Each structure stands twice: as structure tokens, then as C-alpha cells.
Amino acid sequence: ADGGQEGEYSYDLSRSDVPSIVIHVCDEARGVDKDFKCRKDVLLSEMAYFRSYITQDENCDDIDISVHCDIQIFEWLVNYLHNPKSPPKLDSHNVISILISSQFLKMSRLVNLCIDFVRDHINDIIKLPVDLNCLNSELLKKLAR
What we know:
Low-confidence stretches: 1-7
Strand order of the largest sheet: 2-1-3
Oligomer: single chain
Shape: globular
Number of strands: 3
Radius of gyration: 16 Å
Largest sheet: 3 strands, mixed
Order of helices and strands: EEHEHHHH
């Protein structure tokens, strides 16, 4: 697996009439905040975490969502959502952080892509200064399969 697999979305990303939601991301480690604009339909479909905060028919103007996350990782995730035909590449340096974040945000398709990538590149990943203790038991069970 090369990490750039094409996503198969059931919605038309070329439509401009679909409401968007702004997500405020606070990267405490870097002391930086950044706003990300995401299409509501994509967000609800691909980041199941937000389904408990947003309903499909809720007015987008009065939604305030803040996330504490590494901004570079969240930016990668948003690019992944908005570019299913040419998603950003996974690599040995980012895959563990993306795996952990995608599991938290309930992005099951991406979790599976990351699991496959880790399996295929584990020899490279374990040579890096990456703390694999961050992987919870659910992810470790998936990796062991």
C-alpha cells in the first residue's frame, strides 16, 4: 500500500452550495491556533466524531467547534477529506500521528489505510523516534490481525 489510495466518496465535492463548518484548532504544543473550513456533508460522513455535535439539518452559522490537535496533522486530515482523488501521502514519519487522530475522529476508512501502511512499513517506522505506546489496545489488535 502506498498511502495515497483514492477515496470513494458518495457526494459531489464540486458542488459549492453545500454548507461549510469552521473548526477552530488549538495546537497547544506549538502555541498556535488555526481555523479550518470543512464541508458539512464531508465532515459528517467521514469524521463520525462530529456527528454527536452537529446534525445534518442544523444551521451552520451558530456552530462553534474547537479541537485540540497538532495543526499539521489536522491540516493533513482536512486535505485528505477534500482531495479524495489525490489525497496527501502517508509516510513513516506521519502515519502514527494520523492513525491516532483518525481513530479519535472516527475516520474508519483512514484508520484502515493507516493500519495497512504501518503493517507494510513497520521496519521503517520502528527505526524512528516515534512513541508506539500511544497506540491503544484497539489499534494494536487491528495491527496484529
